[in-house]
Amino acid sequence: MRYLIRRGSMLLLTLWSAITLNFLLPRLMPGNPAEVMLAKFKGKGNMGPQAIYAIKVMLGITNESLWHQYLQYWGEIFHFNFGISYTYFPYSVTHMIAQALPWTLVLIGVTTVLSFLIGTGFGIWAAWTRGSWFDMSVTSIFTFTSSFPYFWFAMIVVFILAFTFQVFPNSGGYATQMVPGFNMAFLGSAIYHSILPALTILVSSLGGWQLQMRNNMIAALNEDYVVLARAKGLPQRVLAMGYAARNAILPNMTSFAMSLGFVVSGAILVELVFSYPGMGSLLYNAVSNEDYPLMQGIFLMIVVCVVAANLVADIVNVALDPRIRRGGGEA
Amino acid sequence: MSGLAVFKPFWRNKLARTGMIIVLLLVLVAIFAPVIAPYSPYNSSFPPMLGPSAQHWLGTTQAGQDVFSQLVYGARQSLWVGFAAGTAATILGLIIGLIAGYAPGIVDDVLSYLINVFLVIPGLPLMIILAAYAPVHGSLLIIFVITVTGWAWGARVLRSQVTTLRSRDYVAAARFAGDGMLRIVFREIMPNMISLVAAGFLGAAVSAILAAAGLEFLGLGDPSINSWGTMLYWAENSGALLQGQWAWLFAPGFLIAVLGTSLVLINFAVDEMANPRLRKKA
């Protein structure tokens, strides 16, 4: 429990730092991008005084003291008021994020868990049969795939499976003529459209888990308790799964939480290639239109999701590893 | 130890040897680019969107440039950005990690907190935000952004190693001899974890190469500078997919993956040095 409180407060501090960084960035940048932004907004059409106020607070176009601005900024954040998107005027940033977030959460959530499970499984098997034909080929293939730029592999997959053979759709999250809703036809179409992006992220991220699990497992297989278990004549299966793998997976759980950030980053680029209607494409559109309010809102939302996922991973870790529960373990 | 002996463990490991040869080849390609490439990468006097042929091995771009020449010259930019950002991130991580591990109390607490924050905040979104606000775009910006977001992993590993080394006798001896903290950390402790530093550098270089490609692909680099990442940016933006220009699309990413793979392969030898259990039993 003490461990969880320590990790929890650490993550809260992280969240606070990220939000503060988000506050400081537009204020510290040379050339005052925020003023330019507001001037561009005036050409877009009528905005209520409240919307203008929100943008001013988010980007820092006031003469008030920095401390006062900071308090106002927090006030807006607690009201989920991130201002109006410039690109998608007159929609609010919150509205745009609420539309994009579920797509990304489902896509990344499912593929990350799958990738972790499959990669770890391959890692266990490769370490167990170390030096065999299986180990050598799987380990070299995964070393190669884990160096793929996510977006490049996405483009290759689109080229082969969507253009050349036309087995899968090349872009979008669902068929264009459909109206989003919870019915079988729409869900089917959404799943059909998500197969290629999911496949891309899966292939590019599998290797990392496999290589790490293989290393941990090889180290665990040399531990005294495994040698003893082997000497006692325990069945191979029990030895591999119950003794070695069970301990080898623990460091992997910790890095699972940490590498979530990498998966999120990779998915941003993959979404862009597939024009997938998630946070990645939205962030790209925000950046290419210099839509600072939208950009900041998305960054905040991504950080919140990653911090939450870290917390979940920590809780799972505590459940799995009694050493952490007893107050030991590295923070 | 003579200079060449350092490379011996790398050469003995078959995978690491393969990695070293490939990296060396790519470096040679970058150095001798003017000799190898048939045209200038900026020469746009050819018909646009040609498929692969004897004159243009990998076809031409939308702007009528030779893809193969761009690929050869692009090695320069991609290697430079990858290694520069990898080195900078390693040095930053080294300094912060060593000091955090050695210094007691509040210094360690503050630095550890910084390390943890940068580990949790996802790198690419932060890079994108930083690069988007920046008034000038170019390779220095990309190196800076990757360094700022990429040092924490190495710092964390080094910090925990130092905390186990700082209670050793030779460190105590140095302290009693009156050496200052910086001297103890960098002259006494650091040489004992050089394999960790090397592994950290290789890892940082791989992620820097991938991150640079990603940022350039998003158009956050300078699209007029020729590199593997910007090649992919132009390929995507001029519809190379739709036009069936597979070579233009395939080659730059393939070389990025090959470069990343060979650095990881070299890392296998470093891993074996740091952890003798990974060595194959003779």
TrEMBL record, chain A:
Tagged with keyword Hydrolase: no
Intracellular or extracellular location(s): Cell membrane; Membrane
TM region(s), chain numbering: 100-128, 149-169, 189-209, 256-277, 297-320
Superkingdom of the organism of origin: Bacteria
GO biological process: transmembrane transport
Transmembrane as UniProt keyword: yes
Cited PANTHER family: OLIGOPEPTIDE TRANSPORT SYSTEM PERMEASE PROTEIN
Family of the protein in this entry: Belongs to the binding-protein-dependent transport system permease family.
Protein name: Peptide ABC transporter permease
Biological source species: Sulfobacillus acidophilus
Lineage, uppermost ranks: Bacteria, Bacillati, Bacillota, Clostridia, Eubacteriales
From TrEMBL, chain B:
Transmembrane segments: 21-40, 79-103, 110-134, 140-158, 193-215, 246-270
Keyword Acetylation attributed: no
GO-annotated cellular components: plasma membrane
Organism domain of life: Bacteria
Domain ABC transmembrane type-1 positions: 75-267
Alphabetic keyword roster: Cell membrane, Membrane, Transmembrane, Transmembrane helix, Transport
Family affiliation: Belongs to the binding-protein-dependent transport system permease family.
PANTHER family: D,D-DIPEPTIDE TRANSPORT SYSTEM PERMEASE PROTEIN DDPC-RELATED (PTHR43386:SF1), OLIGOPEPTIDE TRANSPORT SYSTEM PERMEASE PROTEIN APPC (PTHR43386)
GO molecular function, one term: dipeptide transmembrane transporter activity
Pfam families the UniProt entry points to: BPD_transp_1 (PF00528), OppC_N (PF12911)
Protein name according to UniProt: Peptide ABC transporter permease
Topology of this chain in the membrane: Multi-pass membrane protein
PROSITE patterns xref list: ABC_TM1
Coiled-coil parts of chain: none
Intracellular or extracellular location(s): Cell membrane
